[in-house]
Amino acid sequence: MSHNTRQRRLAAQRACDHILSGLRPTTMRERLADLDAGGDLDGQPDFYGDGPVATLEERVAELLGTEAAVFFPTGTMAQQVALRYGADRTGHPTVALHPLGHLEADERHAYANLSGLRSTWPTTEPRNLTAEEITALAEPVSTVVMELPLRNAGFVLPTWDELAAAAAAAHAVGARVHFDGARVWESTPYLAHTLNEIAGLADSTYVSFYKTIGGISGAVLAGTTDLASYARIWRRRYGGEVFQQWPAALSALAGLDTELPRIPDYVRHARTVAAALSALPGARVHPEPPHTHRFRLWLPHPAQALNDAALALAEEEKVWFVAGWQDAAVPGMAMAEVTVAAPALDWTPDDVAEAGERFLGRVVEQ
């Protein structure tokens, strides 16, 4: 997407009166104005990790029920430290993970290029690892990684029993369990367990603050005090001990207070929205019903035609439907990710159907 196209799209979405998927974009001034909700702006900023950053670490450790938590500027850095720790403690350079996970698909194999580790894939199926697959591993591994939810498979989750069995199987083969919990916040309704119960199955958990709860940036790696001590050393070595990060910390604290309690409502309503979208001509939703408040939608049209239709509907009717379409592997189909958040809560199934009809009416194929 070109810069001009992106700016046009953001302007159109910002001007919309009704938004089905995603959030209304905010300006930097608006983001700064929101920071007051996360703490005392008259207080002192952090100095290399104290102040509001330390407060955030303590808050997340309490939420996840871990001994400690360490703030990182990026999730990529936090994940590398978690895998290095496992390799150093076990002596095994191999990690078990899913090829659709962040570590393989989005982080450019940093674990291999920066730490000399290598991976094994217990499965390539578009779902989470199972206990049977972990038990069948042909070689010792230091860490078994599970992404909750697995975004690139459609934001899918295992059941609680499946997750608990997989964690137990990993421990049985002598491996650590690491949860890539970038979006673990939205996993609690489907798993029907609290954040600390979920994190209690793992030896370490990474969470993101700009995903789901609307923070500016940043992540936390949570686990034991030994892991935390190790993480602080390697955070410094990786260049992640930043002088001041109070905007990220305050926005994360605000998100924990304001967005986190609303996620169960988003997940419930996502099932309503998904059902209405699945009734559109030729539509397919996955998973059905959604496991979180995000899911994938396919339509039988070229991606460019769908993106053009979404922009036209936004600019001419002030309705933001679904955008970000990409041509799918199946010829003639395109896929987009749908995120049901606060702006979508007042959409009824009839609203979705009517907007979908107007959206599809603007699709012009070349």
TrEMBL record:
It comes from the Bacteria. One of its GO terms (cellular component) is cytosol. Residues 28-290 form the Aromatic amino acid beta-eliminating lyase/threonine aldolase domain. GO terms for biological process: glycine biosynthetic process; L-threonine catabolic process. InterPro entries: ArAA_b-elim_lyase/Thr_aldolase (IPR001597), PyrdxlP-dep_Trfase (IPR015424), PyrdxlP-dep_Trfase_major (IPR015421), PyrdxlP-dep_Trfase_small (IPR015422). One of its GO terms (molecular function) is L-allo-threonine aldolase activity. Gene3D superfamilies: Aspartate Aminotransferase, domain 1 (3.90.1150.10), Type I PLP-dependent aspartate aminotransferase-like (Major domain) (3.40.640.10). Pfam families: Beta_elim_lyase (PF01212). The keyword Translocase does not apply. Its cofactor is pyridoxal 5'-phosphate. Belongs to the threonine aldolase family. This is Threonine aldolase. It comes from Micromonospora parathelypteridis.
